[in-house]
Amino acid sequence: MYAHEKKLTGWYLIVGMTALFIGGSLGPIQKLGHAGINWYSSLAKIGLASYYQGLTIHAVMNALIWTTFFIVGFFTYVIPHSLKMNLTHPKINTTSFVMMLVGLIMAAVPILMNLATVLYTFYPPMKANSFFYIGLVLVVVGSWVGGLGFYLTYGEWRKQNPGVRTPFLALGALITMVMWQIATLGVATELLWLVIPWSFGWVEGVDVQLARTFFWFTGHPLVYFWLLPAYLSWYGMMPKQAGGKLFSEPLARLVFWLFLALSVPVGLHHQYLDPGVPAGWKVVHAVLTYSLFLPSMLTAFNVIASLELGGRARGGTGLLGWIRTLPWGDPSYTAQNLAMILFAFGGIGGLTNASYNLNLVVHNTTWVPGHFHLTVGSGVTLTFFGIAYWLVPKLTGKQLFSPKLALAQAWTWFVGMLLMSNGLHILGLNFGVPRRVMLGVAAYRVDTWQPQVIESLIGGLILGVSGLLFYTVMLGTVFNKKALVDDGEPMPVAEPLEPEPAPVWLDTWRPWLVITVLLILIAYGPLLFDMIANLNMTAPGFRVW
Ligand code: HEM
Ligand SMILES: [Cu+2]
């Protein structure tokens, strides 16, 4: 059973991890560039034209491709196993993978040919080769098709199980996909309506402000699309790995519904400094952004309480003694717990970014990459590594290669990221050092930056080693001679502490979807109406590289 699902998940993971390998390799090279050690003239010989081409590859492969492929692949495994039934339309899910792969290739070729060095935000009026944009659309639409396969499977399950609560893991995954589906309407509109016709030269100009607004309509919920699968594992799997139970399952469901409702109508917090957006709407989005603090804190409380149950069940006592008895020898658990700690720092910094006035201080400084390497670069990526440490053995039927090496991977990522992100945060906050610059050759570079430049370089190099350890463990597992002993459990599933089923309103889609759409209409409706009524398709395209 589940042979098709496993194979498909395996393919998603192979593509995602390959993308991360290519993108991740450039990370330490960028750090060297910041410190004045310039590898780019040597890299030119193998076709890398500039720091910016490298930065585009780094962020597109890591933040867009690795995440999306891993997530859709993970859900292809989790949803059927959670519902305890096969995908009902396996061909649809296979089509999803093929579309995403074709899209990836279509976008990657222009990037590698230096025809799309527009960074992963591709803000117009920078203009890339059309196939870059078409490829990205295909990746997104391919993920929608995957979602469709999941919904059809869920519909069939619902028919066979009327009145039964949707299992938590399936519900969380489905909510994440629906949120993604709604959120990506923004970037799909941006590309299909504004950018692609303009990049082909069918229309003269593009409305830069409207394009950015559509982009961030998707751009913020994108971070929750990355994060919710990690939350799903923290809530629904890690307590089991720790020997505990999910402290409050209804609360966990509520959190997913809240993220569905609140992820989208907050995008303007990325546009506080955009001159074409009225201040009033920025304030509305700022307030809504702070409302995300609620589900975030509920998560911290619920997940830590669940882990505490595990630590105590394993013999831990005292106020904090249970922390010591958590399964720190298990790389899957440890990677995810360390990811959580890094993510907590990222979340705290995020409060600064989200503040309308404090944002001015850190906007477009190195503080920002300092922040998101803690969130997507660690909270998400290190959690996905932790998941891979149990999932890849299940997929291949092989034992995890060298759990010790995997543990070393988790800890080196933790230490490396603390150093790199600390350095980047301080440089941005104290000195206003700009992001997206090869600082080593900047004319305005000063010696007072040096301590943090070195600190973050050391962090970046440790991260590079950590990345190599990850790939060693993955390849070692795939080629491991030792077969996995089947324990009959396809994935860790945390039991709820309270046996009663969650209330029906936490398993009902309609009211939550209505709230979601209403909030989006309130937060974006008048603004978009105004921008479209005053459409300004005037900016010509530029090739600045
Ligand atoms: C080996 C580990 C890594 C290192 C050393 C590293 C280093 C860097 C550096 C130095 C920058 C450029 C900062 C600038 O010039 O503004 C950067 C940008 C970025 N990184 Fe990483 N990174 C790593 C892993 C990751 C991962 C795992 C992700 C996401 C999953 C990620 C996502 C990004 C993104 C989205 C950018 C922004 C690019 C832009 O501004 O257009 N990085 N990284
Ligand atoms: Cu955001």
Q: Tell me the overall shape.
A: globular
The helicity comes to: 55-70%
Radius of gyration: 23 Å
Overall pLDDT level: 97
Number-wise, the strands total 0
Which stretches of 5+ consecutive residues score pLDDT under 50? none
**Fraction in beta strands:** under 5%
Largest sheet: none
Q: How many helices in DSSP terms?
A: 19
Commentary on this structure:
By secondary structure, the protein is mainly alpha-helical. It has helices at 3-34, 40-43, 51-83, 90-112, 130-160, 168-183, 185-200, 208-236, 238-241, 249-262, 279-291, 293-313, 321-324, 331-354, 359-362, 367-396, 403-431, 450-478, 509-533. The protein has a domain at 1-162. It is globular. The model has no long low-confidence stretch (mean pLDDT 97). Bound molecules: protoporphyrin IX containing FE and copper (II) ion (CU). Protoporphyrin IX containing FE (HEM) binds next to α1, α3, α16 and α18.
Topology diagram in text:
Blueprint (H helix, E strand, L loop, with lengths): L2 H32 L5 H4 L7 H33 L6 H23 L17 H31 L7 H16 L1 H16 L7 H29 L1 H4 L7 H14 L16 H13 L1 H21 L7 H4 L6 H24 L4 H4 L4 H30 L6 H29 L18 H29 L30 H25 L12
Helix pairs in contact: 1-3, 1-4, 1-18, 3-4, 3-5, 3-6, 3-16, 4-5, 5-6, 5-7, 6-8, 6-10, 7-8, 8-16, 10-12, 10-19, 14-16, 14-17, 16-17, 16-18, 17-18
The chain binds protoporphyrin IX containing FE and copper (II) ion.
Protoporphyrin IX containing FE binds next to helix 1, helix 3, helix 16 and helix 18.
